[in-house]
Structures are given as structure tokens and as C-alpha cells.
Amino acid sequence: MRSLREIIRQQELLMDKELSHSEHIRHIQNEQSETDSTINQLNHRYNSLLVDAEEELLQADVGVTRINRDLDDSMVTLRFKVRQQEMTIRSHETTVANLQAEKKELLDICEDLIASTEAKSSQIAHTEEEEEAAILPSPLLPPEMDDNGGF
């Protein structure tokens, strides 16, 4: 049989082991609690960041929508201005074409007037030559006599 000392000794060893094991379990439980707390903090931070990111995405989406709307409005305005300018250009082109046609007509009229004036001028010059020839003293008459028979 075992002696009482051995039994007490074994009992003490068992108690020490149990105490050590209990402390070890408490230490593991504390670590588990700290780990759970850290996980909860990280989850809370993750959820907070996720909410912030979603809010920023919504704001960015609103901003992009506003910018797209502004760009669409600008495009409509610019297209309208381009159409107005195209109409103005067409109007100016028509005006230029009309003015060129009018210029050609005026040049033709001027050329006709110049030709007509030159023809009349040559007729007048020819008539004046004939009149001058009729006014000049006759070469058969003596120089002291004029055409009327006087001196």
C-alpha cells in the first residue's frame, strides 16, 4: 500500500496540476476575450469604413450624374449655337453669291455703257470732223475771202 505521504504528495501534485491547468485555461480565456474584442473592433471599423465608402460612392455617383447632366446641357447648347452659326454661314454665303451675281450684272452694264459711250463718242467725233470740214475755207477761194463771199 501506499503510504499516506505518497497519497498526499500525489494529491498535492494533482492539485498543482489542476491549478496550473486552471490558470492556463484562464489565460486562454483571457486571450480569447481579447481576440473577440479585437475582432469586434475590427468588424466595427470595417462596417464604419464600409458605410463611409458607400456614402462617398453615392456622393460621387451624384456628382457624376450632375456633371453628365451639365455636359449634356452644354452639348445641347453648343449644338444649338453650331446650328445657328451654320445658318448664319449659309445666309452669308447666299448674300455673297447674290452680291457676286449683282456685281457681274453691274460690270456687264458698265461694259455696255462704256461701249455705248465709246460708240457715241466716235460718232460725235466723226460728226464734228464733218462740221469742221464744212466750216473751213474752201481751198479754191482766195485766202482773203471767206465762204460767204466776203473779205
TrEMBL record:
Coiled-coil residue windows: 82-116
Positions of the UniProt region annotated as Disordered: 120-151
A Pfam family recorded for this sequence: TACC_C
Localization, UniProt: Cytoplasm, Cytoskeleton
Domain Transforming acidic coiled-coil-containing protein C-terminal intervals: 28-114
GO cellular component entries: cytoskeleton
Tree of life domain: Eukaryota
Keywords linked to the UniProt accession: Coiled coil, Cytoplasm, Cytoskeleton
Homology family: Belongs to the TACC family.
Full protein name: Transforming acidic coiled-coil-containing protein C-terminal domain-containing protein
Natural source organism: Panagrolaimus superbus
Classification of source organism: Eukaryota, Metazoa, Ecdysozoa, Nematoda, Chromadorea
